[in-house]
Design a protein that fits this description.
The complex is a heterotrimer of chains A (603), B (163) and C (394).
Chain A (H helix, E strand, L loop, with lengths): L10 E6 L2 E6 L4 H7 L23 E4 L6 E2 L10 E3 L3 H16 L15 H8 L18 E2 L5 E4 L8 H9 L6 E3 L6 E3 L16 H5 L5 E3 L3 H9 L4 E6 L7 H4 L9 H11 L3 E4 H24 L10 E2 L4 H10 L13 H17 L6 E7 L3 H6 L14 E4 H10 L21 H4 L6 H15 L19 E7 L14 E8 L1 H12 L7 E5 L17 H16 L10 H11 L5 H7 L10
Parallel strand pairs in A: 1-5, 11-12, 11-14, 13-18, 14-15, 17-18
Antiparallel strand pairs in A: 1-2, 3-4, 3-5, 6-7, 7-10, 8-9, 16-17
Helix pairs in contact in A: 9-11, 9-15
Chain B lengths: L2 H13 L6 H12 L4 H11 L3 H8 L13 E6 L2 H5 L2 H12 L12 E6 L11 E3 L2 E3 L4 H16 L7
Parallel strand pairs in B: 1-2
Antiparallel strand pairs in B: 1-3, 3-4
Chain C lengths: L19 H8 L4 H11 L11 H10 L6 E6 L8 H8 L1 H15 L3 E6 L7 H17 L5 E6 L9 H8 L23 E5 H13 L1 H5 L2 E2 L2 E2 L1 E8 L5 E6 L4 H8 L4 E6 L5 E4 L7 E2 L7 E2 L6 E6 L4 H15 L5 H18 L6 H16 L3 H16 L1 H4 L2
Parallel strand pairs in C: 1-2, 1-4, 2-3, 7-13, 11-12
Antiparallel strand pairs in C: 5-6, 7-8, 9-10, 9-13
Helix pairs in contact in C: 1-5, 2-3, 5-6, 5-8, 11-12, 11-14, 12-13, 12-14, 13-14
Classes of the chains: A alpha/beta (603), B alpha+beta (163), C alpha/beta (394).
């Protein structure tokens, strides 16, 4: 595994397919070729990850060298003559694809990634019309791991590019997956080949996003949801996460990061859901509960000097982050907010508050959610998530699965008109929609908490708290509380220290600094996935920094365009407290909207 | 403390707790315990602050780092070309016949395990085999029976024929 | 064309090592540049198989400016049919240690390692004793150089230089991308000279006697002597030091059993030479000589007419299938395809034309595999299938 080499600023002259071009010294052949419009096919290469150079698909010919060079791993040198399409290259590349296919379960029509598989695309581009090599799949003892509620791992489709291993290691720092054995036994697996559900896997699904084939896919519940919708005795409600509305379009003909909120609601109604409501509503609710919880902890720390109180408090809406904490930092579980995630709050309220308001038998309600996330499938299946008396969320669909359903239903998505979410859990604010981006929960919380405490809006132009926005792995912000309302006098002069991290490898950095006592944060937001939920394990594939940036822009644009931008001003939120919950952290809230966590093994 | 944990702690004290200390520590555990159990790998991971999967992935790469329970004496018969030409299969048959196990198996009393291995570097005295770390060359079926008998004898006498 | 270089014995390697202290202290009193020049004019090439000019390797590493560098002795001898390094380490280890120390002096490294294959564990106690003696002398002459042994654990691929570094760093022995090369980025990312055991023993000879004594042996492009590990159907199995450049016919004359059908030169990664080509093949590095290069260390395995070349090839492919690190597609899948392929042809399940497809596959492996293992499978495969096609088919 090669770290990306620093690119020198000196320019050198090389030639690619006879075209002379000036490039920066040290740039890889792959990048140099791209700069002159020559696309060299790759498999193990990914923009998010370090260079591997093991699939050998990107080999090119370099004049004067006996062997072909891997374009992704070879730096350009002065006067290099590169040929990306010589006969040697074409022949070799074709043969390598044939080799991969011989080791691969190439039964495409029954594969979940049919139509979106990089190996399939290569085989098609290079017209591999015959397969003379011996099929190796029957000789291997391949297994399919279906035990996890979120991820299905099928070894027979693995091309051993190691993208998933590098993702789990570099991007997420979890290392649930590893390369084991050698020779023809070499495979990608877990500690002692245990089911991924039994090891430290956070179920974040980043491996799925980075897998080029169908070796790693989400556990899909499409059939179950169709069954529920078609069952006339069932009342099927659906909630949609903030990040879905800026990603869904990519699967249905739109460009990267286009906002398709209205069309998404229309499509869901057409699919046959009885009520289409918004996770953003419970995102606002989460801010109310979590904000109050933070203030309670601060009071216990600063006024009561309670030694038991745990600060910093960490957000708890990312189930991948939760599972990660449970495995790796079980001694810090009390730092997590006890708030459920918006998905689970919604689920609990759907079969209680909503059912009551609509006069429905909660037993007949099927609660479905559309999430940019695979860990949400795991979260919904957690044993304690039945506060309503039933399973709070029955089925979780990823953005990708929803797109599949829309296509199956023959809906011409691009031509749809916009619709609005249904009452009484469909109203939301700009603060809620930014939950989909890293820093969003922090920003939403600050908008409400600051105003609650001081009676004034946050001192940032247009409520845009830019210090917590951005893509750096760990970001910090300090908000000074001055002249608070009398009730909050103890916070006068307090500098609220906040940190935001995305990608679990950065979460570890934050946790390590808390563990060592180096940092003195009060409030920490952690999102398991790079970019936050908009880069989640259930979002459209492919993913890369550019695509995530566009989705992020869409989210903040959506926020800027909302009439109400602070959670506590959401009229449906005010209503639910008046009619049902009474006040944040009430007994009812505690029962329905708060949860506890489980210590897990280190491996 | 559990003896394995103790062993691992001592090995880490000797070799360090860096990533590049991993292989000597794995070797040290195999030397004593004859294999790396799940427990020992978890302990090594904890001691070196490494993910358990990395320890597993690294250990399984190396043929001599066993991760399945092994007998006290691990027999490794060379199967590369010269040893094969000079009668390795007869040696194997003799062992299989004597110990009543196949390649890859361990005797029920946990004394011997039988494996094949690649070129040991004694091709001019083929066939060759290892018993733990001892090399035996110019093997014949009779010789191998004698050698294994001597191990059995030492085992019964409670002596350690190790190394 | 008949080459009639005679089989010439040489006697440098195993000769007396007792003057190592003198050789060491005399060498480090010369300038590094002098020593490099000496090596370059000797035209010593790596004896592990790759044949890279040793002087050049030391020069390139010396030129990198970095305060931390390493010298590593590659004792992961695992090529089938090779057993000379074990002998060197048993008989004349001080020569190897001296070579390492002088290298350290030349390139500016204070630490040396010997990567010793796990199968040679029995050498440890004696080697450790010898290293202690060596380090004691170094301290006496105020020469800052320590040597440690790193044990392997049963992985042939760790003999590949970058895989060796990975193994020493506590990881799987998977070869790295090159560039960067070890002289820039080796063990722990530092400039490293990695040399085979025998190569280091030859540097001792060169520093003791001067480049000319070494250069005078052998032939153009293949100077000096080499240890050959001889085994198989031969009345004289063992290790022999011979001058490079001899014709294979003379070799077989000396070492064959009268019925030699073929000789495998260079182990499983090398070439099989059939009887009809003995006369036109010389053993040396590629150059003006008609002949084949001397890959992987001088292993010479003789097969007489009772041997099945199919079994031989099958054995090699089994070896590669197991020992491949599995990282890159052409090697991992290629080796499996080749092994299954020849079995299928032999059983009549595939047409003999399939052998041609497999030959083309080995060409692809030669061009695209990430390291020497995958790249070399073509050598034995093509030389055996092309010369003994009749033994491959049903």
């Amino acid at each position: 595994m090669m770290k990306k080499r620093p690119v020198m600023t000196k320019k050198i002259k090389i030639s690619i397919n006879g075209m002379t071009v000036e490039v920066k010294e040290g740039i890889t052949i792959l990048d140099a070729a791209r700069s002159v419009g020559v696309i060299i096919p790759t498999l193990c290469y990914h923009k998010d990850l370090c260079i591997a150079g093991n699939c050998r698909v990107c080999v090119v010919e370099v004049a004067g060298q006996k062997r072909l060079a891997a374009a992704c791993a070879t730096p350009c040198e002065e006067e290099m003559e590169i040929f990306t399409n010589s006969l040697n290259v074409l022949h070799s590349r074709k043969e390598i694809i044939e080799l991969l296919l011989s080791e691969h379960n190439a039964d495409c029509t029954s594969c979940f990634k049919n139509g979106n598989c990089e190996l399939q695309k290569l085989a098609s581009d290079y017209k591999i019309l015959k397969q003379d090599f011996i099929r190796l799949v029957p000789f291997k003892k391949y297994s399919i791991d279906k035990y996890s509620p979120s991820i299905i791992k099928d070894d027979s489709k693995c091309i051993r590019c190691q993208r998933c291993v590098r993702t789990c290691s570099e991007l997420q720092g979890i290392n649930a997956l590893t390369v084991a054995y050698k020779g023809d036994q070499m495979k990608i697996t877990t500690f002692f080949e245990k089911p991924i559900n039994d090891v430290v896997c956070s179920t974040c699904g980043q491996c799925i996003n980075h897998c080029p084939t169908g070796a790693l896919v989400e556990r899909n519940y499409i059939e179950k949801v169709w069954d529920a919708i078609s069952d006339s005795t069932k009342h099927v409600i659906v909630q949609t996460a903030p990040a879905v509305r800026v990603g869904l379009g990519e699967e249905l003909g739109f460009g990267h990061g286009e906002r398709v909120t209205g069309k998404m609601v229309t499509a869901l109604k057409r699919l046959g859901f009885d009520a289409v409501m918004d996770t953003d509503f419970t995102a606002d609710l989460t801010i109310m509960e979590e904000g109050t919880e933070l203030l309670t902890r601060l009071k216990r720390a600063l006024v009561d000097h309670d030694p038991e109180v745990k600060l910093p408090m960490a957000t708890s809406c990312s189930p991948g982050w939760i599972k990660y904490m449970e495995h790796i930092f079980p001694e810090f579980l009390e730092h997590l907010s006890t708030c459920k995630s918006p998905q689970q709050m919604f689920g609990a309220l759907a079969k209680t508050y909503y059912a009551k308001a609509r006069n429905l038998n909660p037993e007949k309600i099927v609660s479905v959610s559309i999430m940019p996330c695979t860990a949400k499938k795991f979260e919904a299946s957690r044993p304690e998530m039945h506060a309503s008396g039933y399973r709070d969320v029955d089925y979780v669909l990823t953005t990708r699965e929803l797109a599949i359903m829309i296509k199956q239903a023959g809906i011409d998505f691009m031509k749809l008109e916009d619709s609005h979410f249904d009452r009484i859990m469909g109203e939301s604010t700009g603060a809620a929609v930014i939950f989909g981006a890293t820093g969003g929960v922090m920003e939403a919380a600050l908008r409400t908490v600051y105003e609650l405490v001081t009676g004034r809006e946050v001192p940032f132009k247009n409520l845009n708290i830019t210090p917590v926005r951005g893509i750096e792995g760990v970001r910090e912000a300090t908000v000074r509380i001055e002249n608070p309302l009398t009730e909050w006098a103890f916070l006068d002069g307090v500098e609220l220290k906040c940190a935001v991290a995305h990608g679990l490898v950065n979460a570890k950095k934050v946790m390590d600094s808390i563990k060592s006592g180096e940092s003195d944060y009060h409030f920490v937001e952690i999102m398991a996935c790079p970019g936050g939920c908009l880069g989640g394990g259930g979002q459209p594939i492919p993913t890369n920094p550019e695509i995530r940036r566009k989705r992020s822009e869409a989210i903040y644009a959506e926020d800027a365009g909302m009439p109400i931008r602070k959670s506590h001003q959401n009229p449906e939120i005010i209503k639910i407290y008046n009619d049902f919950l009474d006040h944040p952290l009430s007994e009812k809230s505690h029962h329905l909207l708060h949860t506890h966590y489980t210590e897990r093994e280190r491996f | 403390m559990n003896p394995v944990s103790e062993l691992i702690k001592n090995l880490a004290d000797q070799n360090g707790r860096n990533r590049h200390s991993l292989l000597p520590i794995l070797q040290g555990v195999v030397e004593q315990e004859k294999y790396l159990s799940e427990y020992s790998m978890i302990e090594i991971a904890r001691e070196l602050d490494l993910p358990a999967s990395e320890v597993f992935g690294t250990a399984t790469f190396y043929s001599f780092l066993e991760y399945k329970k092994m007998g006290k004496y691990i027999i490794r018969v060379c199967k590369t070309i010269t040893c094969s030409m000079k009668g390795k299969n007869q040696i194997l048959l003799a062992i299989e016949d004597m110990l009543k196990i196949d390649v890859g198996e361990t005797t029920p009393d946990g004394v011997f395990s039988l494996l094949q291995t690649n070129c040991l570097g004694f091709c001019h005295k083929a066939p060759a085999m290892l018993v733990n770390n001892e090399v035996y060359t110019d093997m014949t079926p009779e010789k191998v029976r004698d050698i294994l008998s001597s191990y059995l004898k030492k085992q019964k006498e409670g002596g350690s024929h190790d190394n | 064309m008949t080459i009639s270089y005679q089989l010439k014995r040489a006697d440098f390697i195993f000769k007396n090592q007792n003057d190592w202290e003198e050789v060491l202290s005399k060498s480090i009193s010369r300038t590094p540049q002098e020593l490099i020049n000496e090596l370059i004019s000797s035209e010593l090439k790596g004896r592990g198989g790759a044949g890279f000019p040793t002087g050049l390797k030391w020069k390139l590493t010396a030129e990198i400016s970095d305060s931390t560098k390493y010298v590593i002795c590659n004792a992961d001898e695992g090529e089938p049919g090779t057993f000379k390094d074990r002998e060197i380490l048993s008989m004349v280890p001080f020569k190897v240690l001296t070579g390492m120390a002088v290298c350290g002096y030349v390139i500016g490294a204070k630490e040396g390692y010997i990567y010793l294959r796990g199968e040679y564990f029995f050498l440890l106690p004696e080697l450790n004793k010898i290293i202690r003696e060596f380090e004691y002398y170094c301290k006496e002459i105020k020469f800052d150089f320590t040597i440690r042994i790193f044990m392997g654990s049963g992985a042939y691929i760790c003999g590949e230089e970058t895989a060796l570094f990975e193994s020493m760093e506590g990881k799987r022995g998977e070869p790295r991308n090159k560039p960067p090369y070890p002289s820039n980025y080796g063990y722990m990312g530092k400039p490293t000279v990695i040399n085979n055991v025998e190569t280091l023993a030859h540097t001792y000879t060169i520093f003791k006697y001067g480049a000319k004594r070494f250069y005078d042996l052998g032939v153009q492009y293949s100077r000096g002597s080499k240890l050959f590990s001889v085994s198989g159907d031969t009345p004289k199995p063992g290790i022999y030091e011979l001058e490079l450049g001899m014709s294979l016919a003379d070799f077989v004359e000396e070492f064959g059993d009268g019925d030699t059908k073929a000789v495998q030169v260079g182990g499983a990664s090398g070439f099989l030479v059939p009887r009809k080509r003995f006369n036109e093949t010389a053993i040396g590095f590629q150059g003006k000589l008609v002949g084949i290069s001397l890959p992987t260390g001088g292993s010479m395995m003789l097969f007489n007419s009772s041997r099945s070349m199919f079994n031989v090839l099958d054995n090699y492919l089994e070896f590669f299938r197991e020992e491949s690190c599995g990282q890159c597609t052409p090697c991992r899948v290629g080796c499996q395809q080749l092994l299954k392929g020849i079995k299928a042809v032999k059983r009549g399940e595939k047409n003999t034309k399939y052998l041609d497809k497999l030959l083309r596959l080995t060409e692809t492996m030669k061009l695209t595999a990430k390291c020497g293992l995958g790249q070399s499978v073509a050598n034995s495969f093509s030389s055996i299938v092309e010369n003994f096609r009749e033994e491959m088919i049903y």
